[in-house]
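Exercise 3.2. Students should predict the tertiary structure of the chain below and write it as structure tokens, then compare their answer with the key that follows.

Predict this chain's 3D structure.
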Amino acid sequence: MKSSLSRGAALTCAVTAAIAGHASGGAQAPPDRPLLFSGVRARNSDLYVLAPSWQPAAAASESAAAGTGGDSISLGDDLYVKRIGENLWLHVSSRELDGRPAWSNGVVVAGPRGAIVIDTPWEDEQTARLLDWIDGAIGAPVIGVVVTHFHDDRMGGIRTVHARGIPTYGSWLTARRAKREGDPPPMHTFRDHVGLSTGADSLDVFYPGPGHTRDNVAVWLPQRRVLVGGCMVRGTRTRSLGFTGEADLKRWPASLGRVRERCGTAEVVIPGHGAIGGLDAIANTERLLRERGEER
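Answer key:
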């Protein structure tokens, strides 16, 4: 497991969202799953991943099992999922911190080739519950998990993911830090970008530069105009940068600028903690950074 420094860093990162008050029988997967991400080629520091085709559950079964219209589905006191679009769900998990639940956001997106999870819940056991729900309620194989940095609120369940033979993806910086902490690194790493696909959505996973941590990455879903910002993007109503003990405060604004340049048409921005917003979430993060700079 992570050292006390890393675990404490992840916990402290999430406590601001907790204090601010975070809005808080389906079809089965086929018995024989295909070989996942069997076609991989690298080009110009970019990794493009192809997955075999697989037909997900019928829309009616999916709707009944997974909820519609933004319904929340409880998977326990410390984990729930919420449908935020067609074949798109928010997963939200918590860990107790100083007597308060520290809530953390992740995403599940599904398509004909299967489902991709962006960030695991805090714990292995929570991650097992989420993966079981995806198998049963969505009825799609999980063909990949992306981790957006090395803290527990992003990859605390990576051991469970690996135990199920699911490929994981992250920055080479994340892999290096995970190894240093004695944790399993993501299986597939990249320096600048990795392109993934569910068969319906392309996922542009890219490194914009240091911010909340040196290794933080973002995920852009261009067809949906959805940006998963991870912890480098604060919620629209958040009044603090959270834990900055491993942040690069000087280069964080420039990294956000690269996110804006790449994802400037985003209509939905999902932060690592707190409520979903739009580009105002990036604007709020930039404002918080300016205020921090003025204090120094």
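Discussion points: Confidence is low (pLDDT under 50) at residues 1-69. The chain has one domain: 4-24+28-295.
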